[in-house]
Structures are given as structure tokens and as C-alpha cells.
Write a structure and sequence with these properties.
Length: 409
Amino acid sequence: MHAWPASEVPALPGKGRDLRIHDTATDGLITLDPGPVARIYVCGITPYDATHMGHAATYNAFDLVQRVWLDTKRQVHYVQNVTDIDDPLLERAERDAIDWVALAEKETALFREDMTALRMLPPRHYIGAVEAIPGIVPLVERLRDSGAAYELEGDIYFSVESDPDFGKVSRLDAATMRLLSAERGGDPDRPGKKNPLDPMLWMAAREGEPSWDGGSLGRGRPGWHIECVAIALDHLGMGFDVQGGGSDLAFPHHEMGASHAQALTGEFPMAKAYVHAGMVALHGEKMSKSKGNLVFVSALRRDGVDPAAIRLALLAHHYRSDWEWTDQVLQDAVARLDRWRAAVSRPDGPPAEALVEEMREALANDLDAPTALAAVDRWAALQQERGGTDEGAPGVVSRAVDALLGVAL
């Protein structure tokens, strides 16, 4: 599966700072010190609907992570999956009387278009779940053969008790885990499971549903969590720098994935930092496909909204915060974009070197984009009030906003 084209990231003078970021597993800020190549895995979409602002906010957060690392003169090895086989996709395809493969391809293509328009840096490896099945089957077989998984009526389940470090990602109690498991794709009430929290690794073929050859597992399809584990281990290995996604993935998805990987390798942890973006609401409720309260990136683009304004609307909120999308949020972003473009369109302006360092410091401090935006606002206001004599300043600001924030002025 191919990703989307990369926009050029301008090189800035000097060097950025190492990233301090909030780690869910320790509930605190940690300073990441990757080697020459920083490694990041971000969970991708289940392609049964278009990219909404909640998706965009999440991918914007991890785009900033990449930009901070690139500014430290590191390379970035970014991997993202596409869950192109799962119950919600099959249910939507049946509802709309469309082939599930065609639906997945259509929505994945639209996602690529949205990411390109928003100037999100693409992953080096963009892997679909179906594409990953040949690598998933051996992992499930290994877990089963080692006693870390078991069969139940043809399905294969992972035993969470096989990982002594289970629970260290989300830090939740068992009762909360059970509630969230039921809400987020698990089946804690299924009779016969060793532990209600045990997640499915391999679903035996169901009549009328797609299935694949699973070797000794029989025909079926993979569970949600093992998909990401197989892709991450194949392309990044254990101990990669950041596992990312929305806050609703901390449990069960990232918790289970970590346990799968740790049981497979005997190593801990799967990722050095588990980083989670907040939720975006609309009319007082979390924006979600199941509720249908969505604002789509593609719809805004069709209405003529500049993608740079959409991106500024996202950047105006700290990535870990939960916030609400409103018309005013977008109007404020459009006005900010107009001010910034007017400021950099002049032939000279106030010196910009200090501004670049302010932006770097803000973003290195747990991706504090609102503070970086405020610094650019101050420079633009100074330019508006009295201008300046530095002929290179507007160009420096334009390149810094592009390189660090992904906004083309």
C-alpha cells in the first residue's frame, strides 16, 4: 500500500531541541533521545468513512513530533497502518450495499488526499492489515505454541496473564478495563475465556465474511491489536521511540499491543513513550463515526476552506487537550492565517531569529503549539504596527512556520 506525497520541509539555521513529551505509561514528561533515526508508529484509520477533525487532530500531533525530530537533524522512520479489514468496515459495506474492498480503497484514497492537503508528512511504510496477514499468522502461532494464547471454539485468544507487565501502559484497574473492553471492540462476556480481558488474536472464518489462510490456525482473519504489533515489529523492532494515537487507544489497543509484543520477544517495553492525543467534540459530544457527529476535512475543502486554516485551527489547541470544534474556531484560524500571510508578504520586518528559538522551545516542550502560535502572532503584530528593517526576516518566519508547524504561508 502506498502513502501520500511528502511536502518539502525547509531546513532552518541552527538546531532544534530534544523533545520532552507526555508518556501515558508514566503519566509524566520524559525527554526522548533517539539515535540518528527516530522511530515512530502511529495507528491509522479503519477506512469506512472520511477523515474527520478528530482524525486530523491526532495525525497533526504526530506530524509535529516528526517536525521536531527533523529540526534536530535526525531522520525519522515513521510507520502507519490501515485497518482495512474489521467489523465496522464490513458493517458499513453491508449497510451501503458496497463491496468492502471497494469501500476501503475509496476511503483510504480520500484519507490520502486529506493528509496531502493538510501537509502531513507521510509514513515511510504504510501497511494495510490484509497486506500484513502473512506476517501476522506466524506471530499468533508462536504465541499459541508458547502457551501465551489459547483456542476457544476455533478462535485464538491472547492470555493477558502471560505478560507480567500487562496494565502498565494505561494504568487502569480491572473493572475499568472490562468496561472499556466492552465499549471498544472486546468481548469480555464471552463464556470460556480464561480472563474476560483476553483479546482475540485470530477470528476463525465466519459464514459470509472474508477470510484468509491462517496455516495451522485455519482460515480466518486477524484481531485488531496483533495487526499493529506485526507491522511495528517488522519495520521498527522493539523499543521504538513513540507509539502514538488518540487517547481512546490507550486501552485496549495500545495496552494489548504492548503485551502481545512483550510476550513474543521477552523484552520490555515495546515503545519508550506512549503518546496520546485528546478528543475533539462537536455539540458537546466526542466526534465519532458511531455517533455521526462529524466535521469532515474533505467537506471543508470542498467548501473552499484553505487547508492551512484547518491546520491552524488544530494547532490552536494543545494536542493532549479535549476541545470542541465550532464555527468560531475555524473563523479564528482563517483570520490568523490572513494576518500571518500579510505579515510575511512585506519585503522586510522585525528580526526573526528569536522567534524561531521561541517556536523551537515551545514545540520541544510537549508539543506546545498554542505557545508557538502566540509567538508568531506577536511577530506579525509587530510587523503590522511598525514593520522593520531586516530584509530576510519575513522569509525566515515563513520557512519556520512551514518547517515546524506544517503551515505554508
